[in-house]
Specification:
This protein has 140 residues and is of the alpha+beta class. The protein has a single domain, classed as NADH Oxidase (3-Layer(aba) Sandwich), CATH 3.40.109. It contains 6 helices and 3 strands; from the N terminus they run αβαααβαβα. It has a 3-stranded antiparallel sheet, sandwiched between helices.
Length: 140
């Protein structure tokens, strides 16, 4: 996996675990799964608000659901004092091939483990570049 992860190869090789987040890419399969596993209200929401949209929008919605889970995953890792590095810098099609995924599309990966104190990207060593708050947050 590391060799098909662009500039993230070292992070993956040094991590104790790598979790790959994938979105279902087969709408029919998704619909069968929710019919079998979700409450009627959730299925009804999908049928009323999502299913009427074009296929590309449905798939985008499915991918957004996976991104929502990333936030919880990173928070849970932090609460367990496990360091994590989320990475979109992966070759998605190669990941799909390596993992032999049918009907799913890899979106991103998260390397897990404990931080390397010699990593030059540590915030204590190298400050992150971010826009000023007033550029990204508007009070109304």
């Amino acid at each position: 996996m590391a060799s098909v992860s662009y500039f993230n190869e070292q992070k993956i090789n040094e991590a104790s675990h790598l979790v790959v987040f994938s979105a279902i890419d087969n709408i029919k399969k998704f619909e069968e799964q929710i019919e079998q596993n979700l409450p009627e209200g959730a299925v009804g929401y999908y049928k009323q608000f999502i299913k009427p949209k074009p296929e590309s929008e449905i798939k985008a919605w499915l991918q957004h659901q996976v991104y929502l889970s990333l936030g919880f995953f990173l928070s849970a890792s932090a609460s367990l004092e496990i360091d994590s590095t989320p990475m979109e810098g992966i070759q998605n099609e190669k990941y799909k091939e390596i993992l032999n995924l049918e009907g799913y599309k890899p979106l991103f990966a998260v390397a897990l483990g404990y931080r390397n104190p010699n990593d030059a990207n540590q915030p204590s060593t190298k400050q992150k570049s971010r826009l000023a708050l007033e550029w990204v947050i508007e009070s109304i």
